[in-house]
Each structure stands twice: as C-alpha cells, then as structure tokens.
Amino acid sequence: MRSNGFILLFGILFIFILDLGLYVRIKKFLKTRNSRLIYWLHTVIFVAGLFCYYFYVPRLKGPETYYWIGLGIGLLFLFYIPKLVFILINLICWPIGRFYPSFNKKGLWTASIVSVFCFFIILHGITYNRYNYKIESTSVCFPQLPPAFDNFKIVQLSDLHLGSHSSRYEGIPLLVEQVNSLNPDLILFTGDMVNNFASELRPWTEVLNRLKARYGKFAVTGNHDYGSYVHWENPEKQQLNMKEFYENMEKAGFVMLNNTNVPIVRGKDTLYIAGVENWGNPPFPRYGKLDEALRNCNGHFVVLLSHDPSHWEAEILQYDVPLTLSGHTHAMQMGIKVGKWEWSPARMMYPQYDGLYRKGEQYIHVSRGEGYIGFPGRIGLRPQIDEIILHRNCSR
Fold first, then answer.
1. Which residues of 41-53 are buried (b: 16+ CB within 10 A; e: fewer)?
2. CA 354, CA 347: separation in Å to the nearest integer?
3. Is a pLDDT exceeding 70 seen at residue 107?
C-alpha cells in the first residue's frame, strides 16, 4: 500500500510540474482570470480522480460501481491525455523556439492538431470501438491430430469483465450473434468472466446461454473471477460469491474445468479439453494444478485452457500439450497493427500477449479478449473473437 501511495504522489507531482511548464509557456494567451481558473481546474479534477481511484476502488461493495468508475476513468483519459500530449509536444518544441522564435507558433499549432486527433481517437475507443469485434481466423497444423478432428473449429472467448458494462450494453448480444454465425464445434472461454462479483454475471446468463457449439462450451477461472480485489467482511462471503459464480456459469451453459479435463469424442477418435484454475506470477493467484488437469490424458491430443500466458513458458512447455489457449493480457486494450507488424505496451510484460506463438511443436494462442476493465474501451487493437481451426495437413 505504501509503494502505491508513493507512486500516486510521484504521479501527482509529475503532472503538476508538466502543467506548470505549459502554463508558463502559454500564460500570455490566458488573458482573463476565468481562463486561468479553467486551466488549473482541469488539473485539479484529474488529480481528484486519481485520489478517488486510489482510495475508493479497494473498498468497492457492489458490482455496479465498476461501471461508474470505468466511466470516470474514460472521461479523465478523454480530457487529460490530449492535454498531456499538448504539453509534451510543447516541451519538445520549446528549446527550438528559444533560437527560432517563429517556430513557437508552429509548435503550438502542431501540438493543438495532434491533441485534437488524440481526443477523437480516445472518444472512438470508449464508444464504438469497445464492441467493434474483429473475427480473426487462425489455422494450426498438428500432424498428430486425430483424423476425425481434422478441420475442427474452436471459438475462443476471453476476459468479458461483465461488471464493466451497464445493463444496456450492446456488446454481449452482438458477441453471441457473431459467435453463433461461425457455427463452432467448440466454444472455450479462458477466464475473467467478471471483475469480482458473481452477480455481475447474473443479468447475462440467459444471453450467454444462447451461445451454441456442437460439442459444448467449457471455461476456466481467471484472476478476477475469485473476487480477490475487494475487501470482504469475512471469508465465508467470498466463498459464497465463488459458489454463486459457478452456479451462474452453469446457467450460462458453461462447464467449468477446475484442474480437470473432459474427452471430446468424434467418430472413433478422442480429443481432451483440459483446464487449470488461474496460474499467474505474483501478485496474481496461483491455484492451477497442471498434473491434475492432465490426469489420464497421456497419449491423447490435448487442448489446455490456462488464463495467464505466463504459465506456458513457466510450466506447460514441460508437458506434452500441443495447444494452449490463454487470455489475461487484453493486449493492454491499446496498440497498433499494420499488416503482420503489431505493437502494444503489453509486449513489455508478456512475451506472448496476442495471437499465436510457437516453441518446437507446441503452440499457445493468446486472446486479446472481448471486454475491458479500468479504461472503458479499446484504442487501435479491436476486441477480438478468435476462430481456431485445427488441421492435420501442414501444407494447407
């Protein structure tokens, strides 16, 4: 808690210094007292938002507050990030303007245009782009795949974070419609259905139950599904929350794989779907028991669900698991992709953060997910529905 408090104070000091630097540069344009008050009021509101987030979020008592906090974060980003960009461009231009005074005006115009552009990019991210799903189809070849499962279609979903949405959110019914249009053989959900509270899922069970796949729907828990990020009055209440979560997942039509596996039989062949509870590096919980999840799977083709992709290099690669499916990263809900080139801040934390990765004969597919938490939207990299098609013939 102390380290978080230090980061908060350092952030506030940094913001104040930047704002002061900009104020000195443009104060000649702020000719009235009211214009100067508006300038500093903008900063005060942002700092107040940081304080509210720091002190209030750990004391959340109900799921509905996540929606309002997310909305507040979105508004703060919408109105402060463009200003921050404006400040940084001016700081870059300031030394040049000292030697070439005519450059000052050009610098201000450049900063203004880029800031307005940032405003509309963020606005798009927190409105339409948060449910502007992209359907990404990925083919993966496994010579050892049982013949009956050639061309087997899996739809992977992840990180819905249902508590981040209002009850009128259009994204979930749209998601169901688009997934069903793919006619999947299997739907696999790789964790973080909720933010903390089982009741977040309750209004959506009927809608999610309409997701259809020939061989069923399976899911694992993510770090948020345990309700570990709020203060419970006692351990019994958290346990009841977890019990309700499993009940609601069942009502939504999902079979939970809590360190277990199930066989999928097609013709004369069998494929195993295995799932571990969340396994993450600190501070994330580590409840996954891979040995238990893979029990009786020897000699069979396995698709493993594990929420956190860190698990893959840390442990899964030591086992005979051809394909692992993960989520968790959200690709940081921002990034850029041009052709095959992609960049996101998530790559600084996770070597495998979005898409398909391979080591030897083993693959992991990381979903950037369909939901969001904290910042209420997606910038650049759209939320994604992943269609994964298994093949035997590597020449396809």
1. eebeebbebeeeb
2. 9
3. yes
pLDDT of amino acid 58:
56
CA distances to 142, 262, 270, 323, 343 from 303, rounded to whole Å, are 12, 10, 12, 5, 27
* pTM listed for this prediction: 0.88
pLDDT of residue 2: 47
pLDDT at residue 112, rounded to an integer: 86
Count the neighbouring beta carbons within 10 Å of the beta carbon of residue 309: 28
Query: For 178-216, what is each residue's pLDDT tens digit?
Result: 999 999 999 999 999 999 999 999 999 999 999 999 999
How far is residue 377's CA from residue 371's CA, in Å, rounded to a whole number?
A: 8
Closest residue by Cα to residue 87 from 108, 117, 102: 108
Compute φ and ψ for 172, nearest 5 degrees.
-70, -50
d(CA 69, CA 48): 13
